[in-house]
Hints:
Layout: H1 2-20, E1 24-31, E2 34-39, E3 51-54, E4 62-68, E5 72-79, E6 90-92, E7 125-126, E8 129-130, H2 135-142, E9 155-157, E10 160-166, E11 173-178, E12 189-195, E13 197-200, E14 203-206, H3 214-220, H4 235-242, E15 247-250, E16 254-260, E17 266-272, E18 278-284
Amino acid sequence: MNKLITSILFLTLTFSLNSQNKRTGTIIKISGSEITVRNENPQNPFQMGETLRLLTGDESVVLRVVFPMQTSAKCKLLSGSINSLKIGTIVSSGYHQSTNKAVIKPLTKLQSVDIESIKLNDFDSFLGFSKGYLVESAEKILGPPFIKMPTKLMINIDNKRILVWRDLTGENEIKVVIEPKIVNNLKIISSISVGSTTIKGNKKYYQDTSSSGTVSFLLSKGIDDSKLNLFGTPASKIISIFGEPKKIENESEYYTYSYVSPKGTKIFFRFYGHENLLHLIEVHY
């Protein structure tokens, strides 16, 4: 009898949720900062950039969909505590017991981290994106690219298509490269690069952009990646942290250290030759 009553209550709750919500799901996996939510209605999948909240009425906890699939979605914790989440917790995009709207404030500073604790495999996820993520996820989170290319924000270079975001100072760029081969109309992120520089005279130098510039722009979008703390690190320190680079490439004004993570992610650190401080990070999947 108890099982029958429980089943009836569950079916009643499910019907009620489906009738009141845009989309409802259940948390089935929590791995670090990534939360996987099973979609209760595969015919109405979650959307890229969609925000989800707990059905308990706790609106301080907000998830953002970063990789939607037909039957589930990978999400990132946007606000609140990861400890508030448990396997089996129900989340929704439409139903809330509380009438107060959650206010998501832009981040103002990077999370504090000892840069010596950063490992190469940490770069398998960069700015919240990892191998297989769709370009749509970048556009949903970062917004429209700042630079309007002649071909509708996309240009072809070496058979690759590139999206470019430029910070408000106009000196730094965030580039997202799309894989040359587009399968089933899906545009997959191939690489991401972020610069943190300024121009003095006729030369470029590393600049702390956490208050104004690229890093500040990323923080305003809710992106807090501890690896951005590496900006401004001397080249010799990079070697002491990650070891000798696989390859060193020299150009007229800068040089690049190349590394590869255990999973095959390629990481490039770039330094201006006249100051030897890290000013650009580029990650290839």
